Amino acid sequence: MKHIQLVILCFVSFTLGAQITVTNKYFPQAGDTLLTATDNMPSGIEVGTPGPDRTWNFKSLQSPLIVRTIVRPASEGAAAVDFPDADLVFKLNENAEGYYRLTDNTLELIGLSGTDPINLGIDIQPKLNEPQIERWAPLKYGDTHDSAVNFSYALDADEIPQDLLDILPITPDSIRVRLKLNRHDEVDAWGTMSIPGGDYEVLREKRTLDQDIRLDAKIGILGWQDITDIVLGLTDLGGDVLGNSQIVRYHYWGEGVKEAIAVVTMNPDQTAIATVDFKAEDILADLVQTTDKLQPSVLAYPNPAMAHTNFQFMQLKPGNYRLVIYNLVGSEVWHQNYRIHGPLTERVSLSNLKKGTYLYALQDERGRTLITRRLVVVRP
User: Is 358 strand, coil or helix?
Assistant: First the structure.
């Protein structure tokens, strides 16, 4: 009997010892450089089930570029005067900055500056009513955390985008966007993750975000009126974010690693993986760009390609675009039209193209060629 108890004790001790605790060493500091990549068409990977001693093989991830984000003192931010309590600032995407307060136990988002989150095309500097906890420590298997954040921003009549004015029956005095965000975090698994560039011992944090984003119009003596349903019924403007929605992401953290090893975003019904952001290695210098210097572009990957390639559109102004593939004598062999409101990745079959070198070009709605690059098609 004592022998059995000893075996059980040893097994429990081994299990508890194998899992890691992530300390505040994974918090970014001013001067850090974060290298990340994004696969918008991930395949062959699964998040699996919660629990201890899991393995995740994400080595099939690929991306056409690596993004280098520089963490700076908040005083260097474009809107530093609006966030005197912030310690750090860095890019959230190509058009927005996040301002953060850093403590021994938390990294807290306290405000935003840049393009509004529903892509109305205006700049904002809203402060959150409560800080949004982006990282907390120590992080251990089984930990949970809940948070609620609200903020809003308003536009005067002369700031309202024309696309929105065109669909409304009257011209409002002003427009207001209201955001209500409730998030539940749970460290639900630990184990080993493999990504391009290495293997890591990780904790997995599942974040479930319930958000409600509403659009109000101020109309004379009627005051503020909720017009969310009207806008959704008449246009695709903000259609992917307005109203109620739930976003589930899995964050994989490693001790002392400033980037998330991977961040998996599920599709709306949580049946498949939509995108994966992952820690990148600075091994392809010609593909590394800083978030401050990203230019309007479309990149093809993989390239060379066999059965298909993914075209990733970045930094493009909202509008209509045409993507064309030419052979080397200038004859068009494929084209597709796109209405772009933000970052977009499209998978294109190459099965009808022969082996060889082609050119792909992006044209605006006036037919002007903005970008031309080479695409190589190979066959087994």
Answer: strand
Tell the residue number behind the tokens 């599942």, with chain if given.
206
Across the beta sheet with 308-314, what order do the strands follow? 297-301, 308-314, 344-349
pLDDT band at 7 (very low <50, low <70, confident <90, very high): very low
Q: Are 329 and 60 in contact (CB under 8 A)?
A: no
Amino acid present at 123: D
Protein fold of 295-377:
Immunoglobulin-like (2.60.40)
| 8 SS3 class | helix
For 157-166, the CB contacts below 8 A with 24+ separation are 159/122, 161/120, 161/121, 161/122, 161/237, 163/235, 163/237, 164/120, 164/231, 164/235, 164/237
User: How confident is the model over 202-223, as pLDDT tens digits?
Assistant: 999 999 999 999 989 898 888 9
CB 281 within 8 A of CB 35: yes
What is the pairing mode between strands 144-156 and 288-290? unpaired
Model pTM score: 0.82
> 């200038």: which residue's tokens?
330
Give per-residue pLDDT as tens, 261-293: 999 999 988 899 999 999 998 655 455 555 555
Q: Is 105 left (phi over 0), alpha (psi -120 to 50) or beta?
A: alpha
Q: What are phi and psi of 330, to 5 degrees?
A: 90, 10
Two tokens, residue 152: 């809003």
How is 212-269 classified by DSSP, letter by letter? Answer: EEEEEEEEGGGEEEE-HHHHHHH--TTTTTSEEEEEEEEEEE-TT-SS-SEEEEE-TT
User: 262 near 268, Cβ under 8 Å?
Assistant: no
| Per-domain boundaries in the chain | 20-288, 295-377
Residue (of 296, 297, 350, 355) closest to 325 by Cα position = 350
Q: Could you give the C-alpha distances from 357 to 149, 257, 371, 374, 378, in angstroms and in order?
A: 51, 40, 17, 7, 9
Secondary structure of residue 271 in the 3-state scheme: coil
- Percent above pLDDT 70 for the chain: 87
